[in-house]
Design brief:
single chain; about 775 residues; alpha+beta; Beta-Lactamase; 8-stranded mixed beta sheet; 16 helices
Length: about 775
């Protein structure tokens, strides 16, 4: 589907525009692509380095944790193995004589306590419940508890010895009910020839957590003896607490059922009731990473895993601890950030330093883009300047070729002047004006419109219509305005001349002769050259100097009486033949059912400011539009004008629709003057510019009643259409009349010529501004 509303600037070569855009894209795109590639390369290097370094560090962390497991295993082995050896040695030395010779057992036990600091107690028991416990004494030496359970009555004796082994005290404890045969270390060792390791529990006598390694000895008479060594877990927990595993790593020792053996905090037991202690479990620590490691062990067994806990990656390891002689495990949980965090920090610093390089590259790229675009723009401006100079040279050559047309005495400037102005400046419309009547009037000598390609002349403006514009023109200063409406010097001229045409900007160059202004050159909507904004103004000023002599010497062309002019309109030769017009359109006049009014007089009031129509006048409740219509109704009643109709923002009035129409033109003209004065007064009261126009025409019209219940009288035809055209093209706040109306009213009213316009079905015709009664 082809779009039908595309606008193509034929003054621009598409190939040049495409090449210019391609150069601009290259100027901008290459530096930007280079910077983007640099950023992409830096990011790719950063990502690769981060990934490679992270993998390397994690591999090193595996080695580190393996070494840490080995260290813990060695430490536990070094902690527990001496106790195991002590059990074997005592069993081999004492055999069944430990309970028979308590003093000898005490000496051997004291030696073990002195040489192995992690041993807390040594125990000797037999199948009859006889028992010897040796432990360290506060202040040095040892103390032994001897239970004689059989034969004879039960007796519990505490014997204290100093560091030399000499007895320094003895006491009995009849309340002691301890029975070694009920303890786990006795029961476990009684059923095996190997060493037996208990789990963590609280020692009966010391009330401290620990474990016991025990072994049995069977005498010649199959009598059972059990030797036990108690090991305190406090030192093992202190060892775990001393380990530095990253910045926030932890390690614990647990058994296969999740019961804690040693922890960095030393809390391996839980007191369920007074005096009743049970081993704590991993879950009871309320430590999410360790709990997750234990869960991972229960599902997948020992090994290494990297998992997220509460959004933080952790390295979790569970390693069997075989050296303890039990199914113990080392459980380690350490944040991954402790190993790879420095890599992210280093990458961040490297990126920051790289951003400095990128910033410098971006600045250099920006300077390169700016310099390239400036070079292209300078080249285009230079080329355009050369073209402008060429156009101006060609324009001056064309004017020079018609130099004879500039001699004084010619009726108007040559058409080449305004055409050359449009070609050189690129404006939409150019016109040459001449001051007359001592600076009280301004007459258009020639006007040329680029789009229409036609010339017009004869439009005359009075000082009372444009006082500020005339004052600015007489000052003799050239100026250029991007918005002629907003400048007080040209706002009147904009509303009267430029707004109906749709132009906005204005370039004005006064034509001066002997320090006085004799005319002006006006160019509307001329584009400004950004490289040399004074080129157009300089050319227009040069042309104004050429026209100065001609306009100063030439006298205003005489206004011939209308009777002496060649008739150019149908009104000069009498009423138009409506029947002939119908026949020319192929319509039989006898078939027309409307009334024909050959001498109808039609007035149209056009309101051009919709917003002002809704304003309320000061002290009143009615809007401005209501007051205008009320005034129009009163004027129509006073002037006996029977046809008055409001359609949108236009008010139509007509007279001369009956048998007698001789006085109709005067009635309508009087009504137009009264309505003009009333509207000016109302707009002034509303503090608004006069946003209305009035048009008058005399000619043919058709009328008939249409519709039903009720019937409505409708009026149409050439007179209605032409009066509407006069209203649309009239200056704001003025009454514009056709030549036909002028002929009927010139003896009783004052008119001034406005210019020549093309009227449908009439052709080019003169128009006039109705000033008032004569």
């Amino acid at each position: 589907m082809v779009a039908g509303n595309q606008v193509v600037d034929i003054g621009v070569d598409p190939r040049d525009a495409q090449a210019r855009r391609r150069r601009a894209w290259l100027r901008v795109g290459i530096p930007i692509v280079a910077v983007v590639l640099m950023i992409a390369a830096i990011l790719a290097i950063a990502v690769y380095s981060n990934r490679a370094n992270r993998q390397g560090v994690l591999a090193l962390s595996d080695d580190l944790l393996a070494a840490l497991d080995s260290r813990i295993a060695l430490e536990v082995s070094a902690y527990l193995d001496p106790a195991a050896r002590a059990v074997r040695i005592l069993r081999g030395i004492l055999k069944e004589s430990a309970l028979a010779r308590p003093s000898e057992a005490a000496v051997n036990a004291a030696t073990v306590l002195r040489e192995v600091p992690q041993v807390a107690n040594l125990s000797f028991a037999d199948q009859d419940g006889n028992y010897i416990l040796v432990r360290r004494r506060q202040g040095g030496g040892t103390e032994a508890k001897v239970i004689e359970n059989a034969p004879g009555p039960r007796r519990v004796t505490w014997i204290e010895r100093d560091a030399t082994g000499a007895e320094i005290g003895r006491r009995t404890d009849p309340t002691d009910s301890f029975d070694p045969r009920q303890r786990p270390w006795y029961k476990g060792a009684a059923g095996t020839d190997e060493l037996f390791w208990t789990g963590a529990y609280v020692f009966y006598t010391d009330r401290q957590p620990g474990i016991t390694v025990s072994a049995r000895y069977v005498g010649p008479q199959r009598r059972l003896y059990v030797y036990g060594v108690d090991i305190s877990l406090g030192a093992l927990s202190r060892f775990l607490a001393s380990l530095q595993i990253g910045g926030g790593g932890k390690a614990v020792i647990m058994d296969a059922d999740g019961r804690l053996i040693a922890t960095p905090t030393g809390k391996a037991m839980i007191e369920q009731a007074p005096g009743n202690f049970l081993p704590a479990t991993v879950d009871s620590l309320a430590d999410p990473p360790l709990t997750r490691a234990y869960d991972q062990y229960r599902t997948e067994g020992p090994g290494r895993h990297i998992v997220e806990v509460n959004g933080t990656p952790y390295i979790l390891t569970v390693t069997p601890l075989a050296t303890a002689g039990r199914d113990w495990f080392i459980l380690i949980a350490v944040p991954e950030e402790d190993f790879v965090g420095f890599i992210a920090n280093n990458n961040r610093r490297a990126l920051i330093m790289s951003l400095v390089i990128v910033l410098l590259a971006a600045v250099l790229a920006g300077l390169l883009v700016r310099q390239g675009l400036r070079a292209d723009r300078s080249g285009r401006l230079l080329l355009e300047r050369q073209r402008t100079i060429g156009r101006q040279s060609a324009a001056f050559a064309r004017i020079a070729a018609e130099a004879s047309l500039f001699e004084p005495g010619r009726e108007g400037p040559p058409a080449a002047v305004t055409e050359t102005l449009i070609e050189t400046t690129g404006g939409r419309r150019a016109s040459v004006w001449r001051l007359g009547a001592g600076g009280r009037s301004l007459r258009c000598e020639d006007s040329y419109e680029r789009d229409g390609g036609g010339h017009a002349e004869g439009l005359e403006l009075q000082r009372d219509e444009l006082p500020r514009f005339m004052d600015a023109l007489l000052e003799g200063e050239a100026f250029r305005l991007a918005d002629a409406e907003s400048d007080r010097r040209t706002s009147e001229f904009y509303r009267a001349i430029m707004q109906p045409f749709g132009s906005r900007s204005l370039l004005l160059a006064p034509i001066r002769r002997e320090d006085r202004t004799v005319g002006a050159i006006l160019v509307e909507d001329a584009p400004e050259d950004p490289g040399h904004p004074t080129h157009a103004r300089d050319f227009v000023l040069a042309l104004a100097h050429i026209l100065a002599l001609r306009l100063a010497e030439a006298s205003p062309p005489p206004v011939r009486p209308l009777a002496d002019r060649p008739e150019q309109s149908a009104e000069a030769s009498g009423p138009r033949s409506f029947a002939a017009d119908l026949r020319s359109e192929g319509i039989d006049p006898s078939g027309v059912g409307a009334e024909l009014y050959p001498d109808a007089v039609v007035m149209v009031l056009q309101l051009t400011d919709p917003a002002a129509m809704a304003l309320r006048l000061s002290g009143g409740q009615r809007p401005l539009s209501d007051e205008i219509v009320r005034r129009a109704q009163k004027i129509a009643k006073d002037k006996r004008i029977l046809y008055l109709k409001l359609v949108g923002h236009e008010l139509y009035a007509a007279a001369g629709l009956g048998a007698r129409s001789d006085g109709a033109p005067m009635l309508v003209a009087d009504a137009a003057i009264s309505l003009r004065d009333a509207c000016r007064e109302l707009f002034e009261e509303a503090n608004r510019a006069p946003a209305f126009r009035i048009g008058i025409d005399c000619g043919l019209a058709l009328g008939s009643t249409v519709g039903g219940d009720p019937e409505v009288f409708n009026l149409w035809g050439d007179a209605v259409r032409t009066a509407d055209a006069m209203a649309r093209s009239a200056p704001p706040g003025a009454v514009q009349a056709t030549e036909a109306a002028y002929r009927r009213l010139r003896e009783d009213f004052l008119f001034r010529p406005r210019g020549r316009f093309y009227l449908p079905r009439v052709g080019e015709a003169q128009t006039f501004i109705l000033a008032g009664r004569a």
